[in-house]
Amino acid sequence: MPVAQQGPRHPLDPEPVRSTKARAVFALGLIGALTGFFIGGVVPSTIALILARQARREAYASGGFLTGGDRLRRGERLAWAGLVLAVTAVVAAMVIGVLRLAGTPFGHDYAPNVD
């Protein structure tokens, strides 16, 4: 289905270009999602979310001449997935640690008295 034109373009209008920040958000979000379970995904995911906010503001201010909204949304979703995986890994490690600690004897382990 063809997209309807809003009217003739003015000759001085800039050409629509892809946002480089949207591409960076997607790449960082992907890295964050792939390394999220190993806790290393927190840093790229956080940077991706900060860049996504900046890219969204720039795209809005450009009046439609910056494209790449689909990559931006996908990158944000991947970044959130990376953060969720990192939090899941931390919670799982804490639960495993508590269960192991609960299974070990507490206090001094004295030898039995033999009389």
Our measurement of the CA-to-CA distance between the termini, rounded to an integer number of angstroms, reads 94 Å
How are the strands of the largest sheet arranged?
1-2
The tally of strands reads 2
Helix-residue proportion: 55-70%
Counting H and I runs of at least 4 residues, what is the number of helices? 3
Beta-strand share of residues: under 5%
Largest sheet: 2 strands, parallel
Task: Explain what the structure shows.
The chain has 115 residues and is mainly alpha-helical. It has one domain. It is built from three helices and two strands; from the N terminus they run βααβα. It has a two-stranded parallel ribbon. Helix 1 packs parallel to helix 3 and helix 2 packs antiparallel against helix 3. The longest helix is centred in the last third of the chain and has 35 residues. It is rod-shaped, with a radius of gyration of 25 Å.
